[in-house]
Amino acid sequence: MEKQLKIRVSKKHHVYGKLSGKSTQPLFIMVHGLPGNMDESFYTDAARWFRKHGLATFRLNLYDWQKGARQLVGSTLETHAADIDTIVKYFRKQGFKKVFIAGHSYGGPSILLSKKQDFNAAALWDPSYKNSFTKTKYGDPEGRYIKELDGYFMPAWGVNVVIGKAMADEADTLDWDSLTPNFKVPLLIATAGNGVLKKGHQAYFKKANSPKKHLIIPGATHYFSDTPKIQDSLFKATYAWFKKFS
Predict the structure, then answer these.
(1) Calpha distance 77→167 (Å, rounded)
(2) pLDDT value for 139
(3) What is the H or E stretch that residue 75 is in?
(4) Number of domains making up the chain
(5) Structural domain harbouring 81
(6) Residue 155: in which H helix or E strand, if any?
(7) Mean pLDDT for the chain?
(8) 125 has which bridge partners?
(9) How do residues 121-147 score in pLDDT, each as one tens digit?
(10) Are strands 187-192 and 161-164 parallel, antiparallel or unpaired?
(11) CA dist., res. 167 & res. 173, Å (int)
């Protein structure tokens, strides 16, 4: 059974998440993409798979409807990274000796921007690269700025998402090519073979520090949920990478 956790990450904010396992086990933390949440089937499937293979798991919401949680419109990659560091510190104090982490999509650069980098190994699952919310990118039209909300309404996402101006400005000014050179943790980059981010992942990998590995999963799209075999291959490769550093 998963235990509901509420972790303070600033004077005003908490992160809500779900923990399974004991501090005597290695801990696997999952960071969702934008504008996702921990209860999407991809993350619940991952938590179930890694639990069966002996890891404790923690999945979290970077923003949430619950009291004291952050809101997406007020978030940035920088705040995501800081909150991740605070969460890892919390679990280290709880006695977890090995901490592994995976970030999907926008969760990838959230991990790469960690200042503490207190992970034993990391995996990026089809991570975002050179995103923009103000310009057409990867086939998605630019957002429409709404002055009253101080954010960009994203018209083609299928849900009514507003990206705060701070996050939009950050995406356009961030030195994306400095992210992996500044990351000192053993790094696996898993690319969706049918995705649009392959060239960006090659740039990430080329400048990444060793130890590192780049895996392309044929037939996969962004969520790796195309077939059970594709999803299983992602989880197996991630698990094998973590085992090298356990």
Answers:
(1) 7
(2) 67
(3) none
(4) 1
(5) 3-174+183-243
(6) none
(7) 96
(8) 104, 190
(9) 999 999 999 999 999 887 678 899 999
(10) unpaired
(11) 10
Please report the pLDDT score of residue 231 as a whole number.
98
Convert the pLDDT of each residue in 177-236 to its tens digit. Answer: 999 999 999 999 999 999 999 999 999 999 999 999 999 999 999 999 999 999 999 999
The answer on pLDDT for 85 being more than 70 is yes
CA quadruple 239, 241, 243, 246: dihedral, nearest 10? -120
CA torsion angle 135 77 204 99 (round to 10) = -160
Q: Per this entry, what is the length of the chain?
A: 246
- Sheet holding 144-146: strands in order across? 144-146, 151-154, 161-164
Determine the 3-state secondary structure of 30 from DSSP: strand
The residue with tokens 């992602």 is: 234
CATH for 27: 3.40.50.1820
With b for 16 or more beta-carbon neighbours within 10 A and e for fewer, the 57-70 pattern comes to: bbbbbbbbeeeebb
